[in-house]
Design brief:
By secondary structure, the chain is α/β, with parallel strands linked by helices. Helix content is about 40%, strand content about 20%. The strands form 3 sheets. A two-stranded parallel ribbon has the order 1-4. Helix 1 runs antiparallel to helix 2 (about 30-55). The protein is rod-shaped and about 80 Å long. It starts with a helix and ends with a strand.
């Protein structure tokens, strides 16, 4: 499951919980205090469990192979802002709004003298030729 549906589910649950506590507070303030205490404890334990799963558990996707061979070759699995394989440095490119990073479907391979390859976008590149 991706993170956006999980995020919106969490937002919805928080909104529903807040609305429930407000309604209960108008009916019986003592009961609202008890409900808030129990709910807070449960949410804290669920949050701790999710943090531990995010840190230590879950699935890991194998990364695509990234290789560079040859004099001055450059290969990157993601985006490259500025790359130079020749004797000069290209002018820096102002940062553009970045889309969500995507993993390359296959491997990234740069072979040969001055080759440049990236699994994402390349902002500016110079091979010195």
């Amino acid at each position: 499951m991706t993170s956006k549906p999980l995020m919106w589910t969490g937002v919805g649950l928080c909104g529903a919980g807040a609305a429930t506590l407000v309604v209960v507070a108008f009916v019986d303030l003592g009961k609202a205090d008890q409900v808030a205490s129990v709910t807070g404890g449960i949410v804290a334990l669920v949050g701790l469990a999710l943090a531990l799963i995010g840190q230590f558990g879950g699935r890991s996707t194998p990364s695509a192979a990234v290789s560079a061979s040859g004099d001055g070759s450059i290969a990157a699995g993601g985006n490259i802002g500025t790359a130079s394989t020749g004797g000069t440095t290209p002018l820096p490119v102002p940062p553009a709004p970045q889309a969500a990073p995507t993993s390359p479907t296959g491997g990234v391979n740069a072979s040969g003298k001055g080759a440049i390859a990236a699994g994402g976008d390349i902002g500016s590149a110079s091979t010195g030729n």
